Amino acid sequence: MKALRGILAAGAASWILGGTAIAQTAGDAETQGQSEQTLPTQPAGNAGLQDIVVTAEKRQESLQRTPLAISAVSSELIAARNITTAAQLGAIAPNITTTQGPNSSSHLIVHIRGIGESEPILTSDPPVSIYVDGIVVGRSTGAIFDVVDLERIEVLRGPQGTLYGRNTTGGAVNFITRKPSEDFGVRLMAGYGNYNALQTRVSLDTGAFGDSGFKATLSYMHKERDGYVDSLLQKDSKDPGAYNNEAFRVALAYDKDGPFRANYAFDWTEAKAVSPASQLAAANPNQLAYFSRSPNFGGTELIGPSLTRLSTIRSEGTFTLDKTQSHSLTLEADLTDDITLRSLTGLRKWRGDTANTDIDGNAGLRGLVVSPPPPGVAPVSFFGAEKFDKQRQFSQELNLLGTVGAVDFLLGGFYFRERAREDNPQFYTFVIANPQLPGGVGGVNLTNRLIYRTKNVSKAVFGQVTWHVDDKLSLTGGLRYTADEKELDQSSPASLVRNLNRKFDKLNYAATVQYQATPEFMVYARTASGYKAGGFNARSANDGYDPESVTNYEIGAKADMFDRRLRVNGTLFYAKLDDKQLNQFTANSGGAASITVNAGSAEFKGVELEVEALPIDALRLNASFGYTDRSFKTFNILDPATNQIVDIADEAQFSYSASTTFTGGAQYTIGEMFGGQLSARVDYTYRSRLYFNVAPRFAPFDDVISAPGVGLLDGRIALSKVDIGGSNAEFAIWGRNLTDEEYRISGIDFGSLGFATNTYGLPRTYGAEIRMEF
Question: 666 near 620, Cβ under 8 Å?
């Protein structure tokens, strides 16, 4: 009830303060690789909310006439909230939870409607897929990268197994970049904030090259920041949470009068970072007794467990380096006035290095080590690791889409191939109790090394047909057949050395009934299935696990009211997940490992509501609410103590996923002053409690390290449309987490090693920025 009262109070505040996400309009849409069609447009002279153009069904459509649970975020809101990566998506749509994985700067953990995955290993598929201009990003590790020139973000909730394919049982997120302009222009951005946060961005549009049909955009971004937790061993620029990132993008377009169009983009990013601080949150008495004796052996003093965010730790730093290169090519040819052939080709390479993983913020510990021999005093640690990853992928998709009479159709084929590898050395001290040793405890220094390679191939054919029965009623049906082949070559440790190969296939479907009662009101009913491929867990000796599948049923309504002054979109859904893939984390004398099993089934029931309002031209309001009631029906898991399968459905939890989300925003245009237009914006984001482990009986500290519900308040004041030397300039000051909330973004329970850790999100940050367009 306390959380509910907080949500209602925040909702009331958002309506008082006001604001909305201004979306891309039909007249502005510049969408790569989408066929032209007539879209409903806003009546001339109407000052209400604008039409939103989305491409969720691989063709341009008005969001209000798309029978899907979808949220779209425009370039204006992207700029106002400085959204550049998928890790920032949690504040823009209901029932979505995103966070950065522990001890990583590029691992994305995203859940939609309770479905997601937190395992970073490269053989684990994400059930929520990320796309950039329709090209899939194959791994969740490496999925946090800077997209320099964003035009729009679309979040599709619920399974998208027909048009988007495998690994979309939870949903899909599509980043859509800005395309080259017909006119020459320059866009500049520079900003500075606390923790020495510096960001610069420049984008140059060449405009059309004569009458050749070619045009290009060159974009560059640099951003850096000091860490927000002070390490006693590092300078500020190397403190936990620091980064130094660069990104470059080249976009080329060809569009001349004729039947052929082309778009090519090259993206390059390099991110040097220190992962956010991981600090000791809990420990058993033996671990505390052992590591607390460190000063007696010439080591540093133990910084003990804390359930609040520490401002100072003794960290050597978890240094990460991520490099990404990607190419995308979209070709379109109009075969007739109503039929288009489209090709989408993608090539992506990612390299991620993690050195000196600091899991507990306690560098320099020493202790009595009884093994390896001879016994004596040596450096000791709770846990440490290094990690060296590489992934390379190629994808090709073909679409034939068009209209024949009253029928819209889309036929397609898809091919995906990837290779990945990982080298993961681990080192840690296993504490043993022995009354004959000083203090009654001793340590065993252990090492472990995980080395593997994997190869995956996926092929699919799919189609979707929409029959417009009349002006109001439309029926849509779709099918997709997918065939997957996975290979795993385990090289180390010796107990895991194996060569494995398995094949999987699945037929998915979708069916929708859509009724456009009036031009401003639409209702729909939809059922769809999704499929997450089976595979292997490279951390354990296994013969693989089977696919998981979901069947979803939902009804939705979308309405514009009061001359488009109010927009309300709502969804009710029910989903059944079968053969759920569960990664069961273990940490013991064999190191940090996990096993993956098909644990059983789960049900998800929920509601989503999105509201936008424009009560007066100067005041824009938005709010969204999402709630998912999640329950396991069966949850069969291997009990390591008995080596028996047990059903723990009554106690299992949904990790890294909030049952309740709420967002509220307000933007008020104060008016003309200081040579420009002054406006103010405020945003509030709430998510309920997060648990970080699914099986609490095997994670003794899980309740202690779970993340309580939290609400974050952001604000921005901007002076825009300032004429400086013929340029259009904007000056802004901003603040995030204005109330300086302490909130946990991840946790690891090393139960068998006797301790657990937490990572905390950003404290209050603030700064100023300037944007100019020539």
Answer: yes
Instruction: Tell me how far apart the alpha carbons of residues 527 and 538 are, in angstroms, rounded to a whole number.
Output: 35
102 upstream amide cis, omega within 30 of 0: no
Tokens found for residue 530: 């999704």
Contact present, 395 and 414 (Cβ < 8 Å): yes
Rounded-to-integer distance, Cα 219 and Cα 205, Å: 9
Per-residue H/E/C for 290-332: HHHCHHHHCCCCCCCCCCCCCCEEECCCCEEEEEEEEEEEEEE
| 577, two tokens | 């997940």
Identify whether the C-beta of residue 458 lies closer than 8 Å to the C-beta of residue 482: yes
- The residue assigned the tokens 């991840």 is 746
Residue pointed to by tokens 């032209």 = 36
How long is the chain? 774
pLDDT in tens, 289-347: 999 999 999 999 999 999 999 999 999 889 999 999 999 999 999 999 999 999 999 99
| Domain definitions of the chain by residue range | 2-773
Place of tokens 């020139």: 149
Tell me the C-alpha distance between 502 and 485, whole Å.
6
pLDDT classification of 492: cutoffs 50, 70, 90: confident
CATH code for the domain defined by 2-773: 2.40.170.20
Instruction: Name the 3-class secondary structure at 700.
Output: coil
Supply the DSSP string of 536-556, one letter for each residue.
Answer: --TTS----B--EEEEEEEEE
Model pTM score: 0.91
The region, left, alpha or beta by phi > 0 then psi within -120 to 50, assigned to residue 544 is left
- Between CA 294 and CA 305, with CA 300 as vertex, the angle to 5 degrees is 80
HEC string for 127-159? CEEEEECCEEECCCECCCCCCCCEEEEEEEECC
